[in-house]
Amino acid sequence: MVNYIIKRLVLSILVIFGVSILIFTISRIIPGDPARLALGPRATAEAVEALRKEMNLDEPLLKQYVLWLKDVLNGDLGRSLTSKRPVSMDIKQFLPATIELMIFAALLMVIFAFLLGILSAKYKNSLFDGILRIFTYTGIALPAFVVATLLLLLFGFVWEGVIPVLGRLSPGVEPPPHITGLYVLDSILSGRFSTAWDAFLHLLLPATALCLGGMVQNARLLRSSLIDNMTKEYITVSKSFGLPTNLIMRKYLLKPSSVSVVTVLGMDIASLCGNAFLVENIFNWPGLSRYGINSMLTKDLNSIVAVVLIIGVIFLIANFIVDLITAALDPRIRLGGE
User: Fold this and answer.
1) CA dihedral 150, 154, 160, 166 (to 10 degrees)
2) What are residue 93's DSSP bridge partners?
């Protein structure tokens, strides 16, 4: 297991290095002069050229990357052309909101994917299973931003006031003291339970929009895997011994059936940050994804590279955790199929 973990860590480092080269190159070669965009159309040519020199844009691409990588390894992500602040300060401000949204969406995805998948397999070909199939097909077909728009229309106009739809807190509610940057957790730690409840309600709609597609997809995948394993000989033997159905499901069916589901779930959870770009804009959520979209529109190079790198790191962390879980569920994976 230790050798398996070391191999995955080395591979992850190589991948993030490759991603940094790719996104840095793309951000530099796409059309548009970031210095001109930052200073505006009325800026003098001398001012634009001075900013280009400050950003090392007058250097060869390879030297630009080496200088940038040296700064990043020293903890300097550069300065944002839009906010006029260090990118690290912007990341510190906006990342916790996205992390909180991702955590809540991931919890909803995992809990309801397993719950719906198990119930659908247990009552296969029943009315409940049929209704769930229609629900899952609809959820898979609708992109996250469409679901977000529908929820915004429903709870912003039709059922106005039932659940808050915009921002992280209601107007007039003071943010909790900054401990982790996660409003629900910080409010609980500081004893402000009414603020925690308000922050929790604000999470419901954007988290639901983010996780719905992955939730129903994994519920269908788990159902199919459970039904397929139900026909295996060891399950037939377990039933012949008179073991309770719930015990067979929990102890003998769920573990082998979860390997493929955990793999897909991990990638779906990692992709939440990327999928949040439009969802955060729709719900006016002050997160990193929304910050990334604004950076792309203004070609804020340092901010773009930093946001994409963070998303890449999130993917790698999720993939690494999934590898560990699947290796624990199925020893053949960590033994290389031996």
Assistant:
1) -10
2) none
